[in-house]
Amino acid sequence: MKNRPGGNAIQGDLFSGFNSVVDETIESMHKEVLSMQDADVSFYRNFFNQQDSDELFQTLFNEIQWRQDKMKIYGKEVNLPRKTAWYGDRNMSYKFSGIHLDPEPWIPTLLQVKEKVDKVAKVKFNSVLLNLYRDGKDGISWHTDAEPELGNNPVIGSVSFGGARRFMFRHKHNQDLKAEIELIHGSFLLMAGATQHFWQHQIPKTSKQVQPRINLTFRVINS
């Protein structure tokens, strides 16, 4: 993947305009609040501009230590339908679906993204789970981000780069309550409050042709 999605190979200095983006005031960003019972979900559609999003996608694709994890389904070990990586502060390990992740040390690219995410979320995140969805055959099934090490009412900051994908919600106790949003290149979804207690979410697989997507979900691990 030598070309960024929808563009040519990157030229010039990386993050040439990134500092100015980080310095934007929170008030200047357009915040969309999703109308969801028992939840606190906000969406920033153009959290990163096109140029920064293109460059961030390419850098993360090339620099992240991607891994192919496996999980057991009915006693059979199968590949996760995506590649993953776990970065964070020292000793901030994480477990999900029987997979244990020890953090890789932060790299400058992730820290620059985290700086902006921290400011808007008003949270100092100490870790990030990255997912690489290579095509429409990659996805993630219904789940909540509610592991014990995330604490009560965890705040999850989700940044997306690359191809747009459907992000679906369903209420755990009322099947009539559903919501959906398209996570586009450079967007930021913030889930807070009781969201993880009452709502599941997924990225469904699709037969449609979609561009590769990188998702970063920033978290606070309670050591």
Summarize it:
With 223 residues, the protein is of the alpha+beta class. The protein has helices at residues 18-22, 50-63, 108-121, 195-198, and strands spanning 32-33, 40-44, 70-73, 76-79, 83-88, 94-96, 99-101, 127-133, 140-143, 156-162, 165-171, 178-183, 187-192, 199-203, 213-219.
- In percent, how much strand structure appears in the residues? 25-35%
Q: Order of SSEs, N→C? A: HEEHEEEEEHEEEEEEHEE
Q: Provide the low-confidence segments as ranges.
A: 1-24
Question: How many helical stretches?
Answer: 4
User: Looking at this structure, what is the CATH superfamily?
Assistant: Alpha-ketoglutarate-dependent dioxygenase AlkB-like
Q: Residue share in helices?
A: 10-25%
CATH architecture: Sandwich
User: What would you call the shape?
Assistant: globular
CATH class category: Mainly Beta
- Could you tell me how far the N terminus lies from the C terminus, measured between alpha carbons in angstroms? 37 Å
The count of domains is: 1
**Biggest sheet: strands, sense, closure?**
7 strands, antiparallel
Mean pLDDT: 88
The computed structural class is alpha+beta
How is the largest sheet built, in terms of strand order? 1-2-13-10-15-8-5
CATH topology: Jelly Rolls
Count the E strands: 15
Taking all Cα atoms into account, the compactness measure Rg is 17 Å
